[in-house]
Write a structure and sequence with these properties.
Elements: E1 10-12, H1 18-26, E2 34-42, H2 44-53, H3 63-77, E3 83-86, E4 89-93, E5 98-103, E6 112-117, H4 125-140, H5 147-155, H6 160-175, H7 181-184, E7 193-197, E8 218-222, E9 226-231, E10 237-250, H8 256-271
Helix pairs in contact: 3-4, 3-8
Length: 288
């Protein structure tokens, strides 16, 4: 049941500890609380897993689908990652939401479209692939725009002084939980995690800033897969397939220890990709 102070997408956390309560006032802007982490992931086993999944030709599972499944699983098991701060108050989202930008064509002036995916407890990497693949194809159509794209194309025609008034209203509504659901539900500034697949354009993972607008507190960039010489548990080295990821976090939503354990879980999922066959609602054995 929705209580006083809750939002349509989240409930207010009232029993926050003193340290995090203080941090919201010490660093009221999200960009003041950014922490950037660069991690190297061994994706050798994931590539083998993808090859096996695609052997039948029924679908085309990609590395990006596996990343989405692994990140969704991590947030499911590490719920503090699904918190956000707005108006110096802490909130816990009702669901996981993941946003990304789709380039309609790989050309300099091609339009981009925004997409938001909300994974469910009964979905695994196969369900994610089956659901996202047709949506991505639809979003790439030149004559097809997402609802948020249509809104922004109207807004851009406003005179400059009207635009300033419009943005002042938007920031006020955002800060006080009054943002219309029709806008925030399709805006990637309001997702749990924003993903940028730079590997698809042959680029490595980079730092990506957070925004003070909206509620998004985690941004992940995904780099191009490449070969590297890596040591194993015994110290022996071998050539492995490697992918860099860059993670920018709002450090106010949890502490560094919690973030470090969350990254450990992602590495475990990539080392054991068969776990991605389990639905998000199924438990997995993992010792943090």
């Amino acid at each position: 049941m929705r209580k006083w102070g809750d939002r349509y997408d989240a409930y207010r956390i009232k029993d926050i500890d003193g340290v995090h309560f203080y941090m919201a006032y010490l660093m009221p802007k999200r960009t003041q609380a950014e922490v950037y982490i660069n991690e190297k992931l061994d994706v050798t086993e994931v590539l083998k897993y993808i090859k096996e999944k695609n052997a039948s030709g029924e679908r085309k599972v990609t590395m990006f689908h596996c990343v989405i499944a692994a990140v969704a699983r991590t947030i499911k098991m590490r719920p503090l990652l699904n918190r956000y701060i707005s108006g110096k108050r802490y909130y816990m989202r009702h669901e996981i939401s993941m946003g990304f930008t789709i380039k309609k064509r790989f050309t300099d002036h091609a339009e981009e479209s925004l997409m938001i995916y909300r994974p469910k407890d009964d979905e695994n990497v196969t369900a994610i692939t089956d659901k996202l693949s047709p949506q991505v194809k639809e979003a790439k159509r030149e004559d097809k725009g997402q609802s948020v794209d249509d809104i922004l194309n109207i807004v851009k025609k406003l005179p400059k002084f009207i635009m300033h008034i419009f943005m002042a209203f938007m920031r006020f509504a955002d800060n006080h939980g009054l943002m219309p659901k029709a806008f925030s539900s399709v805006d990637t500034n309001y997702v749990t995690v924003l993903l940028s697949n730079l590997g698809s354009i042959k680029c490595d993972a980079v730092y990506h800033h957070l925004n003070n607008f909206g509620t998004n507190g985690i941004v992940i960039t995904i780099g191009e897969i490449h070969k590297e010489l890596l040591p194993d548990e015994t110290g022996a080295t071998s050539v492995r397939d490697v992918m860099n990821i860059g993670v920018t976090l709002d450090e106010r939503i949890a502490d560094g220890f919690y973030f470090a354990r969350s990254l450990k879980l992602i590495k475990h999922l990539f080392k054991n990709p068969q776990l991605l066959d389990k639905t998000l609602g199924e438990e997995i054995d993992f010792e943090f």
